[in-house]
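Data follows
____________
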Amino acid sequence: MQTLQSTLASVIRDVFNVDVQPEITRPDEQFGDYATNVAMQLAGRLRRNPREVAEELAAKLQEQAGNDIKSVDIAGPGFINILLSDSALGTMAASAVSTKPDTYKGQVVVTEYSDPNPFKVLHAGHFYTSVIGDAISRLIKVAGGEVHAVNFGGDVGLHVGKTMWAIVKTLGGEHPEKLAEIPEDGRSEWMAKNYVAGTQAYEDDETAKAEIIELNKRVYQLHASEDRDSAFAQIYWTCRQWSYEYFDAFYDRIGTHFEKYYPESETAPLGLETVREQLANGVYSDSDGAVVFEGEKHGLHTRVFINSHGLPTYEAKDVGLIMAKWRDYNFDKSVIITGNDIIEYMKVVLKSIEQFAPKLAQRSLHLTHGNVKLAGGVKMSSRKGNFLRAVDVLDVAHEANKQATGRDDEQAVLGAIKYAFLKQRIGADIIYVPEESVSLEGNSGPYLQYAHARARSILRKAGEPADQLSGFEAGERSLARKISEYPEVIQKAVAECMPHYVCTYLYELAQVFNRFYEHNRVVGNDREATRVLLVTLYADVLQDGLDTLGIAAPDRM
């Protein structure tokens, strides 16, 4: 497409002495391979009839493109429809997998996502953002970026104070030796229950609330004093380590990996230092003993960055996080993926940073998504203890897969869940329907995995492929045309950080192949070599696309 755009832009300069970047689209196949309405855009500037402009462009384009274009037709008031030659289309299809965008070539990109908090359990939202973040990271790598995937979580803060308060109560005091009684496979659930208990106590009991506030301060002091020996410290550090081991095990299971984990205990001091420094410079201001950023001056709202107890809030910790990422990576872009609930919050944080480090704010991209719900759409909360855990999503998918196939296949289950998450545009809530996600029919991960395995099965029975594609029959051309679209889809997905474009394309590609295979025998046909090459290219695109999404492409199912 880029070559055609360049050629058309050159023709426009030659014929009309005008510099434009023509927009080229993919029309329905019956109208050709590409279409453009640039003649109608030029007509106003040239004060000419758009169809006449289109006719002049079409004639010159046909002449300049030579053997690459079979025909250029005019439709309606001035639409230009372009049909590529079979040889040009064959070349595009053959290079579909190897043709990658260079959007991020030479750039360092930090992707931050998942962001679980120690002392709490992973919920479905963590699962979702881990899958989305991994796919976006892969897209950026495909486009030449040097990607560093990082994670951020609260090992200090009020939620830790609440959990530690309940843990101490559960243990009957500060008795770290009693932690040995907690079964290894139940540690995360045990901490989650204590978080819920601590939260309820904080909300319902003023005495407990005061105790939790003091424990929160003690946790910060553990880090400041580097205390690892006191009874309270032993409980804290042991439980924090349990959380990290639990996170790592889950990430390994779903195939998501992080280069670095930033705990809030590390970013909080840097955030405090930065906010206090910029307080003196007038970026932040004092307010009743707290330090705030007055967002109203920028069309936003005011938020507290250091509370009246002198402790950093989430806002200051996020300032510290961005400064730490800059210190560690000197990034060209920082992609931050979170839930929709902190859109306005992040606007204030980034606007405050913009006042003293504009480059960091400008290079930060905040992407947000909705909640994950099972059918029925009930919103759940870890604070109340009625949340949908990450492992719950895996469990219901495994059960649905067993019911549908009689097998317990982790690879298929992960493919089902990931695709169900990724096929929807990032932003809205996700309604996860396990039975639909594991189906071998319809728009699902297992359907595409099976499509790939089926193609590889055909190739195992077939002879050698042709050296190149040319001289298509009707069904062959349709498949080659769809294969040739792959680089354009990847380009769009990279530009918008939207993996769902890849999902939609792969599903459409599999449907086109099914129609081709239904009417065109491959093995034993006199056009076997050409069709074997087509099937090979199709399978390679499926595999590359699934890999870009972080989904396995099995050769057999």
In short: Residues 341 and 370 are 8 Å apart (CA to CA). The radius of gyration is 28 Å.
